[in-house]
From TrEMBL:
Protein name per the record: Bacteriocin biosynthesis cyclodehydratase domain-containing protein
Extent of Basic and acidic residues compositional bias: 1-13
Lineage: Bacteria, Bacillati, Actinomycetota, Actinomycetes, Propionibacteriales
Gene Ontology molecular function, alphabetical: ubiquitin-like modifier activating enzyme activity
Residue numbers spanned by region Disordered: 1-23
């Protein structure tokens, strides 16, 4: 037998009877009779075993939700059963075979990412998120977090006076980030809470950067770098000085605020569930009119007035002469 990426199974007593297994959504690439790739979502495994393509084909045809693991193994010849049991066990461990009852889209998603975040769903149900704002983006973001199963989601119009037990704060706004979101980002730094801003500015949706306090770039870092790289910064500074209260002067349509909340919601869900693919240190810029999307890496500004070491340390005191009382 050639090598396989699947873990060794227990070749002692057969496993206890399990619920009927299903292979719904699994895709297979047959490279040769002895080598195949099995994939669903982020879960992917390459199998290299003699005759594995034919065996896998039989396993997937049997995985229609009516047979448990041992019943599937029992349909094979006795000399093949140990390897088939190992194959079925490995596929199930990677979420490529699943219980028949777990066939809702959300169930299949979490099975597909289980190899990257095994306890993602449990972490999500125990997590908490505070959405700061009172507009349509706030409503969209809060609704998406609730729909994805975040355990505790609340909204407020301003940051709480105490940090509380929140895992993350989000600031949602239909206006440019120069006002409310910056103040809320500073409050999150002071409270030591992970922070994600989302806002609209001249028909462009901005999400991120997600900030881990004093560890990754904050919102001020992002705005300072945008300003420093803007060839028309003086014009844009004058325009920002004319921003008033209320909605952004460019206006927006409902799909724009919905997309803003949904994109931000997905980033929050990935962070809370432990998936290693979030906007920490990155900013998303998305325009629907015309369509474009950019993801930019954001580095910390060395002397950022909000998150640098200088911001947290007092000015040095220079003493001159003897400090001893005479």
């Amino acid at each position: 037998m050639a090598r396989s990426e699947l873990p060794d199974a227990d070749h002692g007593q057969p496993a206890d009877p399990q619920p009927g297994l299903s292979a719904r959504g699994v895709r297979v690439v047959r490279l040769s009779p002895d080598e195949v790739i099995v994939k669903r979502g982020l879960a992917e495994v390459r199998l290299q075993l003699e005759g594995v393509a034919e065996v896998l084909d039989r396993v997937l045809r049997l995985a229609d939700g009516t047979l448990d693991a041992e019943a599937m193994v029992a349909t094979f010849e006795p000399d093949l059963q140990p390897e088939v049991r190992r194959l079925v066990t490995g596929l199930r461990a990677r979420g490529l075979l699943h219980d028949r009852s777990a066939e809702q889209p959300a169930d299949l998603f979490w099975l597909g990412v289980a190899s990257h975040a095994p306890d993602a769903r449990a972490r999500l149900t125990q997590a908490s998120a505070l959405v700061i704002g009172d507009g349509q983006v706030t409503e969209s973001l809060a609704a998406s977090l609730t729909a994805c199963g975040v355990g505790r989601v609340e909204t407020d119009t301003k940051p709480p006076k105490q940090a509380g037990t929140w895992d993350i704060w989000c600031a949602a706004s239909e206006d440019p980030a120069g006002g409310g979101p910056v103040a809320e980002a500073d409050a999150a730094l002071g409270a030591g809470v992970v922070f994600l801003p989302v806002w609209l500015d001249d028909l462009v949706i901005h999400v991120g950067p997600m900030t881990h306090p004093f560890d990754s770039a904050c919102l001020r870092c992002y705005l300072l770098r945008v300003d420093a790289n803007d060839p028309h910064r003086e014009v844009h500074r004058l325009l920002r000085g004319q921003d008033g209260d209320g909605y952004s002067g460019a206006g927006f349509l409902s799909p724009m605020t919905s997309v803003a909340g949904q994109v931000a919601g997905m980033e929050v869900v990935k962070y809370l569930s432990g998936l290693p693919v979030t906007t920490v240190g990155r900013a998303i810029e998305l325009s629907l009119v015309p369509f474009r999307c950019d993801v930019r890496r954001v580095l910390r500004v060395p002397r950022c007035p909000a998150c640098s070491g200088v911001a947290r340390q007092g000015a040095p005191i220079v003493a001159h002469g003897s400090q001893l009382a005479e």
